[in-house]
Design brief:
Layout: H1 2-38, H2 41-50, H3 58-86, H4 89-94, H5 99-124, H6 128-181, H7 197-202, H8 205-228, H9 231-245, H10 249-258, H11 263-267, H12 271-298, H13 300-308, H14 316-340, H15 346-396, H16 407-427, H17 431-452, H18 459-466, H19 472-483, H20 495-517
Helix pairs in contact: 1-5, 1-6, 1-8, 1-9, 2-3, 2-5, 3-5, 5-6, 8-15, 9-14, 9-15, 10-12, 10-14, 12-14, 12-16, 12-17, 13-17, 14-15, 16-17, 16-20, 18-19
Length: 527
């Protein structure tokens, strides 16, 4: 993440919006290309290396079989791509200026195939400690190689060379580590006839369909936008996407903390426990992602120019359009994780296909007339529909992610907290100061309203703080014990009256902030 946080704005500033747009388009095209090239092979090597079979030299045969397929598929795809470029199909589809880049992507696909194969093989050999470090090495090697090349004036080609060098380094290191455990000379060994070739070849075919549908959600808007608008619009739109997708860090962390493999629960038909886990994860994801989304929206005018530079100012409006959809996609991610553990993938694929189809249709309708704003609106609807479709799909397999999630209360807390957060962002006219003050203020206000609306129990925030080291942890623990068991529901008479009371408080606080310190009518002491 650190490497990505550093590299994205540097690339945008060095390449400019147009160059960054070309680079983003090529990466989106390459991502879909690699899904077809890999065809589930890399996931299969992890799965079957982890399984024990009675056949002698099982691991050697698996390593050799999948390595042969990986190289064969990558070479065949590269040949087809190069022939398509030489025949003029690439120029007809995307423009003559991309023909040279596509040649490079065809060769890059071979290197990336070997890199991905080595990482998955290491994981299958119980060497995850090396597999995960290869990902880190890849990201930092890219920054070390690509940024200087781009700064020296090599442009998009320099960024792609950095990508290739980083992938090559990781492929060589990864294959070397695999060779230490299982000799790569096994690629020349022909397995016996009873070796389950068809099982290994067709493994994970359904999962490949799901991955391709998800990838289309991530990349089809960028590819289609390039067809109808100039590269600068693609670059600004991709900058907006990167900031909106940063919200997905929240569900990843929450799933890491709360989630566990639900496969065993599914095998025992323990639907109540799965539903409870899904509801808890949905509620916590909404709580933390919503406050992050509101804060990002309030600070969009400050964040975008500071992060990507003044040339990225056109990305502000697409970012505001993308934030609601990114929030919906964040809510869908843990539901998708739980549903896929059920095993059949029928309903997760169906739900994702509906969202992906809606996304493609809306992008096709809106991009020609409205450019990156149309792409942002289409994508936010497609992203948001993921949550709706996956909740419906989860219910079909016996799980209700909204049962006990307190969704209505969380939405009320978000709406109430948004007003003072936007008010403070308006008052603090210095962008650096707003980045310092608004996020902690927004989190505090949001937690207060979450408690007052009964979204969370009063002890829950202190429960999180109690796990921290000195000086917060020891001081939060006594408060948590005193509040434990206190009902978090509202005590004011009636839900409607309670909402009116809380709305009055938030409007009063916001009005005082704007009247006293507003940049137009007050004394801008925060400016």
């Amino acid at each position: 993440m650190l490497a990505g946080i550093v590299s994205a704005p540097l690339l945008f500033r060095l390449l400019g919006p147009a160059g960054f747009g070309d680079y983003s388009f090529l990466l989106s095209l390459f991502a879909l290309y690699m899904l077809l090239v890999q065809s589930g092979l890399t996931g299969g090597v992890r799965e079957f290396l982890a399984k024990s079979r009675s056949m002698a030299d099982w691991k050697s045969y698996v390593v050799g079989y999948y390595l042969r397929l990986a190289v064969l598929f990558a070479l065949a795809a590269a040949v087809v791509t190069i022939l398509a470029s030489r025949s003029g199909y690439v120029a007809a589809l995307f423009g003559a200026e991309y023909t040279g880049y596509v040649y490079g992507l065809a060769l890059l696909g071979i290197v990336v195939q070997l890199q991905t194969y080595s990482r998955e093989a290491l994981a299958g050999l119980d060497l995850e400690r090396y597999a995960e470090r290869l990902d880190v090495l890849d990201k930092f090697a890219f920054v070390v190689v690509a940024i200087p090349l781009v700064a020296l004036g090599f442009g998009v080609s320099g960024a792609l060379v950095g990508y290739a060098v980083a992938s090559l380094v990781c492929a060589v290191v990864g294959l070397g580590l695999v060779h230490r455990r299982v000799s790569l000379s096994s690629v020349f060994r022909i397995p016996p006839r009873r070796f389950p070739r068809r099982e290994l070849l067709t493994f994970n075919s359904r999962n490949l369909v799901l991955l391709f549908l998800l990838a289309s959600l991530y990349h089809v808007d960028v590819i289609m936008l390039q067809r109808f608008r100039e590269s600068a619009a693609v670059g600004n739109y991709r900058a907006a996407l990167l900031l909106a997708e940063a919200l997905w860090f929240v569900p990843i962390v929450i799933w890491t903390v709360h989630g566990r493999s639900t496969s065993e629960l599914w095998s025992r038909n323990r639907f109540d426990e799965i539903t409870a886990l899904a509801a808890k994860t949905t509620r916590n994801t909404l709580l933390l992602t919503a406050v992050a989304a509101v804060t990002l929206a309030a600070l969009a005018d400050a964040v975008v120019p500071l992060y990507f530079g003044p040339d990225a100012t056109p990305a502000i409006e697409p970012l505001l359009l993308l934030i609601p959809g990114a929030l919906g996609f964040a809510l869908a991610r843990p539901v998708l994780e739980i549903a896929t553990d059920e095993g059949s993938l029928r309903y997760p694929i169906g739900a994702t296909a509906c969202a992906a189809g809606l996304n493609v249709v809306l992008n096709a309708l809106l991009i020609p007339g409205y450019g990156m704003h149309g792409a942002a609106l289409a994508t936010t609807i497609g992203y948001g529909s993921m949550f709706v479709f996956h909740v419906l799909a989860a219910r079909r397999i016996g799980v209700d992610p909204l049962a006990g999630a307190r969704l209505g209360r969380a939405v009320a807390a978000t709406a109430l907290a948004a007003v003072p957060i936007f008010a403070l962002a308006t008052v603090v006219v210095n962008p650096w100061l707003s980045l310092l003050l608004v996020p902690p203020f927004g989190l505090f206000v949001y937690l207060v309203f979450a408690v007052l609306t009964g979204t969370i129990a009063p002890a829950e925030p202190f429960d999180a703080l109690a796990g921290l080291p000195e000086p917060l942890g020891p001081r939060a623990e006594p408060i948590r014990r005193r509040l434990e068991g206190v009902n978090g529901d509202l005590t004011v008479v009636g839900w409607f009256q309670s909402m009116l009371f809380l709305a009055g408080i938030t409007l009063l606080v916001s009005g005082l902030l704007l009247a006293t310190f507003g940049p137009d009518t007050g004394v801008p002491v925060f400016g």
